[in-house]
Amino acid sequence: MAGKRFQVLQGNEAVVEGGIAAGMRFYSGYPITPSTEIAERSALRLPQVGGKFIQMEDEIGGIAAALGASMAGLKAMTATSGPGFSLKQENIGYAAIAEIPIVIVDVQREGPSTGLPTSPSQGDLMQSKWGTHGDHPVIVISPSSVQECYNETVRAFNMAERFRVPVIFLMDEIVGHLREGCELIPPEELTISNRRVDREFNGTLAYAVQEGNYVPEYAPFGSGDHFNVTGLFHNLDGFPTNDSEVTDSQERRLLDKITKRRDRIEKWEEVDTDDCEVMIICFGGTARAVEGAMDASHQYDSVKIGMFRPITVWPFPEAALHKILKHNKHLRQIIVAEHNDGQMILEVQRLVEGTVPVTHLGKIDGTTITPDEILEKIKEVY
Amino acid sequence: MPSKLIENTMRVNRLPHIWCPGCGHGILMRDVAQAIENCGLDPDKVVIVSGIGCSSRAAGYMNYNTLHTTHGRAIAFATGVKLANPELHVIVITGDGDATAIGGNHLIHAARRNIDLTVIVFNNSIYGMTGGQYSPTTPHMEKGTTAPYGNIDYVFDIPKLAEAAGATFTGRCSAYHAQQAIKLIEEGIRHHGFSVIDGVSVCPTYYGRKNKKGDSVKMLNWQKENFVDVKVAEKLPPEKLEGKTLIGKFYESNDKEEYTDMYMNLIERAGGNK
Ligand SMILES: Cc1ncc(C[n+]2csc(CCOP(=O)(O)OP(=O)(O)O)c2C)c(N)n1
Ligand code: SF4
Ligand SMILES: [Mg+2]
Q1: Nearest 5°: phi and psi at B213?
Q2: Is-contact B171 B198, C-beta < 8 A?
Q3: What CATH number does the domain containing B31 carry?
Q4: Maximal CA-CA distance, chain A
Q5: pTM score > 0.90 for this model?
Q6: Residues A86-132 pLDDT 10s
Q7: Nearest residue to A306 via CA among A274, A276, A345
Q8: Short-list A57, A25, A92, CA closest to B267
Q9: Measured from the CA of B71, which atom of ligand 1 is nearest?
Q10: Is B66 a pocket residue for ligand 1 (Cβ < 6 Å)?
Q11: Interface ipTM
Q12: CATH top class, domain A6-189
């Protein structure tokens, strides 16, 4: 049982509870630090709600089985960390082209290869967008508190189901292992989206889309519509084709699913962004240090600090950032704080276009950025 | 005019297929379809899962729920389909490369779990789709485009590998011996557990040409002359079996409980059926 409404949970545990509230009934994966608690709690909790858990032989099998389960109609998730995230990439692309809903959690750890298995990092930000080959749609969400792990997992499932895309839940060790209070909001009080099924319209033509829509509404296997699912470019019935017109229209529709629905996908937090002089842009667990720095600075009240935090990191909330740049006449400096050697800053620089100086506060030694280090950086550049 | 079987089980509008003239894969696909028909399965509940390769293209032609996945991963996808909905009859069509090279790990672990899948390997002893590179079933010292001096690797014996890993049904059939193949696949589908069938195919285009085996007819004739049913072989002296390949059912056991049955039981114990 989920038990009490208010509980002290780890971020990793809250992901499982949020998933179950969203309707997750299948988990398959392979253990890896610092994500393992997600597998452990899924193994315990899913059978209690009639769901299924399977520990596969590797991470590729983990995502493959979850995609198979999703095709059979269950909401499915897999979770991993860096090395396993690399292994899953091919099938993330498969999910994108075959339009199979799935949530993939990556609890980031420091460094390439085995790196520092137990240390925080945000080095997979670009991989979460570009990791699988070819042009493909992507939604990536990054939570910064245990409560957000719960709520945003629900949103991740909702978007995966609604748009029939892989949604990547990009956590870091800070949030994954953080313990704090979490309200386990029951499903009745949440918005839960399920994939739409219109057998009358789709039937065998699984990949046909209705006028004004971008998402096909095919039924799960076993319903009676005999269609084909493939990672090759395909016709409306899923049968492979080399036709360049079909390829172009399919590829564009896959991308449009996201780009034409940005308003429903983007999410961010703003603190004092309308009149701050220094704005810190961060995501995930790094926000905790930024919040600490802001609290401390209020005591001296020397410079006014603001924070812009993308919660949906991809697609990046461009319009929101542009709005701040346009309206905040006091803004003199942007600092991008992230646990990597400079990834989100590339996106920020692209959008700021030199109108405000942008500097980087990055850390890649396996330790966390502290509020003091943020205040130091502000002093240094402002 | 397509035959009644083809009309009932194939996506007729998607034929003709992409395979080369004389390829053995089409024969084996037909055998699988016939076996499904013979078992009387509800086509709405049949799921064909395949990987990548000439063999794996079979899924697209078959008029069921079909899932053409990524190279080597068919069995892992199939595991998810079956566990999610154990009512579905899940049949995997794969190649020798797909199942035993890149996908070898999934094969042995699915066997170990004894999950109720029926895996038919369309084994042509070569990587057909990529143009004739040697595979884990290319015989020792035979040639492939990546083995111009002869292949120094040794082969996997697929039924033995599967049995050792825990499969509860194994056998071999061939493109030439269609009636026996249909019967064996039928038994494999009926078996409640993990079944692996080594379906020996022919690839005249690459394997045949590289190794001077002649055309398809000659290759199929070779199967006719060199393949011996296990039951017949039991009565033959060892010298008569030299250089021969055995076909038929090799192993069947009902001693191990099937995986999804055990999982449904586990859900019951965890209180998830309320
Ligand atoms: C990850 C990955 N690696 C390599 C390939 C290229 N590839 C496609 S099919 C194939 C071999 C197929 O051989 P087999 O499974 O024996 O099938 P056949 O074509 O012989 O029927 C290879 C290597 C691929 N598609 N994906
Ligand atoms: S290359 Fe070989 S396996 Fe592939 S279709 Fe041609 S004959 Fe068949
Ligand atoms: Mg082959």
Answers
A1: -95, 0
A2: yes
A3: 3.40.50.970
A4: 68
A5: yes
A6: 999 999 999 999 999 999 999 999 999 999 999 999 999 999 999 99
A7: A276
A8: A25
A9: 26
A10: no
A11: 0.98
A12: alpha beta
